[in-house]
Write a structure and sequence with these properties.
Layout lengths: L3 E12 L6 H8 L1 H15 L44 H13 L1 H22 L4 E11 L8 E14 L4 H67 L5 H36 L3 H8 L18 H5 L3 H22 L4 E15 L2 E20 L3 H67 L5 H35 L39
Antiparallel strand pairs: 1-5, 2-3, 3-4, 4-5
């Protein structure tokens, strides 16, 4: 069923070179009908749509007032905006920048900013009149008795919808909130890309360290196999000992091949993340092979609500709540009457036979008041839908807050666990290394069996591998903590939506890559 609206139409016009007195001009401009139309619109509209709802602050969202995991405070505390530079690894910095540059997630976030800016320009434009140039020409007879006439005109046409109930203002506010949110999401994408590349680089260096252990183990097994074969030939060892030593050497070679393949796969994943040339990357990786990065400690002394408020994804979720609230205001305002005004001014020339007339033609009107009466519940349904979207955005915002706290707490727990195991693993690695050295010496002297030597070797390899894994897990926990507390990004000042942000980049100048945005509104 069609919706029906009531239209009130008032207008007037005047031509130059005509005698028009003040009373005729007032009648032609329609000032009295315009005032009556505005009074009718406001009386039928009742009250405006209302202001956007207040945003729930992190401290009121059920977040604990203190951290539940031990906070790391040993070592030098780093500035997150320069954190990657303090690794002392230029190759890592280069790979992070390459990964951010080619990341599809970052590119998509940048496109979202462009879309949000377009929506903001459109929303702000709806608050102002639109002006168009108009040109027209005609030739013909108005009636059979008239002479042939030529008419031409050139002028301006203006249209303006009066935002009496704030629908267009709410639209602009929603667009501004989404621009702020998409800007924060862009920074979040860059932080995530940096962390992903760094984790891949860490995995490669740990894999190289494990590969060195596998190479040493394979060389030792091969040497024991050679010595055992000589002992068998001289009758000092039974033939079964040679078979066991040969099997052990083959097992070591297989483990080494598997480790090398794993490292090659990680290199290829880094190439995919950064779009680097693989041959050049392998040459650059070689000088610092098996050298795991050593991060600097981060300061996590603030309460949870303060830490999560620094995260760009939290601001993005908060701005989506504000945008959804503005969408409700816009939907409610669209149930009210709307008033639009059209005006024009033109220079016209009329030529008919030997007579020519020219002058200025202007018009104020029509002034149209549209008042919704019946639309089968479409506008009411839209208000309900926007309310549901607002509720969903609020739930997502609160869930994001809780998840952010969980991510920080999880990283802190991993750091604490790594620190608690580190000394014990080092003592175990040193002890098993000494045990293997002694067992090897006894085997060479013929006072120990190959079984004892292989048992000592397995214990030594496992201890060294565990120590490397602990180092890898500790660095990964620091990277996770960097990501969880926002990656060096800070919420913008109200005066500027993106001024002074680092976005988790490797260089301070990276913050200037994003074009500036306008002011944002957070009531």
């Amino acid at each position: 069923m069609r919706s029906r609206c009531l239209f009130l139409h008032f207008g007037g016009e005047s031509r130059a070179r005509l005698s028009v007195n003040a009373r005729d001009a007032a009648r032609q401009l329609g000032l009295l009908p315009l005032a009556l139309a505005l009074c009718v619109a406001i009386s039928l509209g009742g009250c405006a749509a209302g202001t956007p709802k207040q945003l729930v602050e992190p401290g009121a969202a059920g977040i604990a007032s203190s951290w539940q995991a031990p906070l790391p405070h040993d070592g030098k505390l780093a500035d997150l905006s320069l954190w990657w530079a303090q690794f002392g690894d230029p190759l890592l910095l280069r790979l992070i920048e390459s990964g951010q540059r080619v990341s599809p997630t970052v590119a998509h976030a940048g496109a979202r900013i462009a879309e949000a800016r377009t929506a903001l320009v459109t929303g702000r434009a709806s608050l102002l009149p639109s002006v168009s140039a108009v040109s027209a020409g005609a030739r013909g007879r108005a009636s059979p008795d008239d002479a042939l006439a030529t008419t031409s005109s050139l002028g301006l046409l203006a249209r303006w919808e009066l935002d009496v109930f704030g629908a267009n203002r709410a639209r602009a506010d929603a667009a501004q909130a989404r621009l702020d949110g998409s800007t924060a999401a862009w920074h979040d994408a860059r932080v995530s890309a940096a962390a992903e590349v760094a984790l891949g680089y860490l995995e490669l260096r740990a894999c190289e360290a494990q590969r060195i252990q596998a190479e040493l183990d394979a060389e030792s097994r091969a040497e024991i196999s050679r010595l055992t074969a000589l002992a068998v030939k001289t009758g000092l060892q039974p033939p079964s000992a040679a078979q066991l030593a040969q099997a052990s050497a083959a097992q070591g070679n297989a483990a080494l091949a598997s480790q090398r393949a794993q490292c090659d796969l990680i290199v290829k994943s880094i190439v995919a993340l950064t779009s680097e040339d693989e041959s050049a990357l392998r040459r650059d990786l070689e000088p610092h092979s098996a050298l795991l990065p050593k991060p600097v400690s981060l300061l996590v002394g603030a309460v949870p609500a303060e830490v999560v408020a620094r995260r760009p994804d939290i601001l993005a979720a908060a701005r989506e709540v504000m945008a959804a609230s503005a969408d409700i205001a816009q939907a409610k305002a669209q149930r009210m009457p709307s008033i639009s005004v059209v005006g024009s001014i033109e220079t016209m020339r009329l030529s008919q036979g030997s007579i020519s007339t020219d002058g200025t033609v202007w018009r104020v009107g029509p002034i149209v008041v549209t008042m919704p009466i019946f639309d089968s519940g479409v506008r009411g349904a839209r208000v309900a839908a926007e309310q549901a979207r607002y509720d969903a955005a609020g739930a997502a915002y609160l869930a994001r807050l809780r998840e952010a706290v969980r991510e920080v707490e999880a990283a802190l727990v991993r750091l604490q666990s790594s620190a608690a195991r580190r000394d014990s693993l080092r003592v175990a690695a040193i002890g098993f290394q000494g045990s293997f050295t002694a067992a090897e010496a006894r085997y060479r002297a013929g006072v120990s069996s190959l079984f004892e030597l292989e048992d000592a070797r397995r214990s030594m390899v496992a201890a060294n591998s565990a120590l490397i894994d602990e180092h890898r897990e500790a660095v990964a926990a620091w990277i996770a903590l960097y990501r969880a507390i926002g990656g060096g990004w800070s919420p913008p000042e109200p005066a500027n939506a993106v001024s002074g942000l680092s976005g988790g980049t490797t260089l301070q100048a990276e913050s200037r890559r994003l074009p500036p945005a306008g002011r944002h509104r957070l009531e």
